[in-house]
Amino acid sequence: MASSALSLSHQFLCIYSSSETNNQLSKPQLPLTRIPNRSLSLRTLLKSTSSKNNSTSLQSSPEDPKPIIKPKRPDPIPPPESSLFDSPLFTNLRRLRDESVKYDGIVVDILSIALPAALALAADPITSLVDTAFVGHLGSVELAAVGVSASVFNLVSKLFNVPLLNITTSFVAEEQALVLGKAKDESQLIGDHCQGEKQSKKFLPSASTSLVLAASIGIAEAVALFLGSGVLMDAMGISADSPMRIPAEQFLSLRAFGAPPIVIALAAQGTFRGFKDTKTPLYAICAGNLLNAVLDGVLIFIYNLGIGGAAVATVISEYLIAAILLWKLNTQILLMPTNIDAKRIIRYLKSGGLLIGRTLAVVVTTTLATSMAAREGPVPMAGHQICIQVWLAVSLLTDALALAGQTLLASGYSKKNYEEARQVVYKVLQLGLVMGIGLAGILFIGFKPFSGLFSTDTEVLAIAWSGILFVAGSQPFNAIAFVLDGLYYGVSDFEFAAYSMVLVGLVSSMFILLAAPAFGLAGIWAGLFLFMALRVIAGIWRLGTKSGPWKLVWDQRELES
To answer: Is the pLDDT of residue 297 over 80?
Structure first.
């Protein structure tokens, strides 16, 4: 009986299963759809859905699209409020801090260019230091006169010399990088040794154009300095009855004859810098300075020419430097252009006009400081002269890093190698800060004994020693400021370099005019310290704005990241 019941239930179950199978086959077949992969949270959401919703979804029409359940996105986090620390200045400082200093190939290139250039760049300051050391033993009046004359000479000479030097370096570096790249890609050389000596030399229009402009500028400077020495002394506030007037005019008139070789030598140095060769200028400058030191002792003390002997010795050494550089340069390139390229000259003049305004702002600020110091009297002026000469000579050593940064940045930027350009910016700024701190420490320790080389007058030395905070404390700012200048020139950011310097110079000059009558030399030195600090702030801000020529450098990094 039990087995009969079990058999009967089994038959009913088979009939029911067959019926259900036929019903499923009779229904229209749903299309196969690919179920997209879901995250764990989405599968959890689907499992938690009610069975009613599931059956509704399965019974939807084949024509209806499969509904896609999207996970709920979290509410967007509102951006943080901007503050002073989010400005381009602090952003760039953080970026500079985060970049580690590694002794890699770029650092090696920087040091290989900067170390020889550290001495080559100090040509004029070292010459002035030698003159100051010899003339200082003649008396405080003669020392003060040399200080005034040197400031005037820098005002007229460097107004045109420094722009030409910087433009030549950038233009030659760009042209050299492009020519070498083209020769490598196309397997072509600039010269053909089978066509004679003239054809074997490189022809770089930037270099030859610079030399032509240098000769013209040097002659014009010589005439202006020689004929206008009296007018320039009046402009410096040196009256006709001042004991400094006669020796100052004599020194300036004789130094005027050295203007042409100075400008030509600087143009030649700019060309060698563009070649990343700073050793050749170093050799020439060492030979010239050695000759100047020997002639100073002979002409001042043996022939009793006094302050005039110092000027003659300097001029002779400057002609020797220019002759050596031109002789070496003539073995590598064609010195004179085969034709005059008007567009290239216009490019030089346009960029030079901007940098002339920039250099004018620098020289006017420093010359104003010297003029205000001269009004304090011969003894304060002599003490100021020692401080300013040491300050310029030591701080300009850091300008060697600026030169290395300018050359490498111009080369990488012209080849559109922006990664290399960024690394040059980081490395040269970090090295500049380290050098500035090191120079500050050295001067804090050695300035007092070192200043004794320039004078034996106890009153003059006491005034000079009182400026140790200015001379040593400003070195880190000086280092970064000079490096930033080189970076401007490396990407041909001449416009910002000019306008920012004019504004900084105007603010600093106003400070000096207000502070000097009240605080004397301390106010003057504080104004020069402010001058360098404002230059650093403006430069770091410019790098952080990512505008102008810097847009390509920083935007490329964002694309790569």
So the answer is: yes
Cα separations (Å) of 192 from 197, 200, 202, 203, 421?
9, 5, 10, 12, 33
Residue 200 to residue 127: CA distance in whole angstroms: 37
Q: Write down the residue that tokens 């080369």 correspond to.
A: 411
Count the helices and strands in the chain (H runs, E runs).
24, 0
pLDDT tens, residue by residue, 100-134: 555 567 888 898 998 888 877 666 666 667 777 88
- Is the pTM above the cut of 0.90? no
Tokens for 491, please give them: 């990407």
> What pLDDT score does 200 carry?
62
User: In angstroms, how far is the first alpha carbon of the chain from the final one?
Assistant: 83
The size of the chain, in residues, is: 561
What is the CB neighbour count within 10 angstroms for residue 63?
6
Are the C-beta atoms of 123 and 158 separated by less than 8 Å? no
How far apart, in whole angstroms, are the C-alpha atoms of residue 153 and residue 253?
10
- Residue 42, token pair as written in the block: 């989405």
Which stretch of 18-27, 259-268, 437-446, 489-498 has the lowest confidence by average pLDDT? 18-27
Nearest partner of 535 among 476, 473, 475, 480, judged by Cα? 480
CA atoms within 13 A on the CB side of 516: 22
Taking alpha carbons only, the member of 446, 448, 443, 453 closest to residue 463 is 448
Q: Please give the mean pLDDT across all residues of the chain.
A: 78
Q: How confident is the model at residue 31 (pLDDT cuts 50, 70, 90)?
A: very low
Q: Do 389 and 366 contact (CB within 8 A), yes or no?
A: no
Average pLDDT over residues 53-80: 48
